[in-house]
């Protein structure tokens, strides 16, 4: 599981990108869904992404949840990514 814990209070920007077949993932903050990325291509594999900017308190966690029955492809080519960075402190 991809997990980020905020070190300081501030506004952060997060992005998730997935590659697979019938793939649904959500970016979650402290157990509450913020955004979801959905991909389905009946002809085979595809990709999707989503991003969000959010105010976090120090200690808040943001993580990615793969929905049940979703399939993502994983290889050493790193098709699936989760990234984030601090935009500014508050």
From TrEMBL:
**Family annotation (Pfam families):** C1q (PF00386)
Name the InterPro entries for this protein: C1q_dom, Cerebellin_Synaptic_Org, Tumour_necrosis_fac-like_dom
Which cellular compartments is it found in? Secreted
Gene3D superfamilies assigned to the protein according to its UniProt record, in alphabetical order: 2.60.120.40
Q: Which residues form a coiled coil?
A: none
**Major localization class:** secreted
A single GO CC term for this protein reads: extracellular region
Q: Which UniProt keywords apply?
A: Secreted, Signal
SUPFAM superfamilies reported for this sequence:
TNF-like (SSF49842)
All copies of domain C1q, residue ranges: 1-90
Please report the name of this protein according to its UniProt entry: C1q domain-containing protein
The scientific name of the source species is: Knipowitschia caucasica (Caucasian dwarf goby)
